[in-house]
Amino acid sequence: MNLRRRLLGVGASLALGLAGPAMAGSGGLSGEPFCDRAPELSAAAQDKLLRFAAVVRDALGEVAPDGLALISRSGLDVARFGIRHSHTAIAWRDAQGRWQARQLYYACEEGRPRLYDQGLAGFVLGSDDAAEGYVSIVVPPGDAARALRGAALDTPRALRLLAGTYSANAHPFSRRYQNCNQWVAELLADAWRPAGAAEDPRAEAQTWLAEAGYAPAPIRVAAWQLLASAFVPLIHLDDHPEPDRAAATLHLSLPRSIEAFVRQRHPGSRRLALCHDGTQVVVRNGWTPLAEGCRPEGGDRAVVLGD
Asked: What global pTM score does this model have?
């Protein structure tokens, strides 16, 4: 494999893992791997993922009385960056009792980010891996959950926080770009900061996040991996401070940093972690990470997926 193809592979993994559902089309970036991809899952594999989605749905119903939660899932293989969950959305229950996920996605045909409401099964199927997958659910307490639901489902308000340009590795405190997780972080700020009109909602959201202690942990990458930005249109470096680039250390919003912030801001928040290995689902109540390989440990609940 030559260096350019290797860089494309790494860059595409990061871009896809953090892009949310990428919608293919004939325009925009047509021909790029992240827009052309179509997961090839057998009927049996899809059935297992749908069964996993049913367990996730039931778990949401048990822990989210206000019909609102943050939900994160694993995506493509970004474990090389030390990332398990790559994509966060707002899970909400509609008037018919159906759970949906409101999220930012990259619209390939238009070449820009959009907001997208997706059924829970589709959200889980976005992991593209019937062999193993991880989902995390975080439920803020009462008033915080209701405020977030109001902000998330007020579509004009939510759209005011949407950037015009997408970057998979968008810096959390730059308004030049945005990724799916950064939109969620800024939505939290808009929901929980003191009420008042905002001339620049993204600027005020980022200011509030910084003052409230939101500090995504750095991700170390090999210096050569930074070259991926030259080949992958959905990765940029010009919004990251020069010292970070020189140190091959990037800060970006990830599910784990968002969850940590929610827990710090609202200590009463509840978390459920779920995983599947193709044969069973493991459900854990609490903030301790699940074991690698989706193995149940003391206190975990296991649900058989079946043949």
From this structure: 0.90
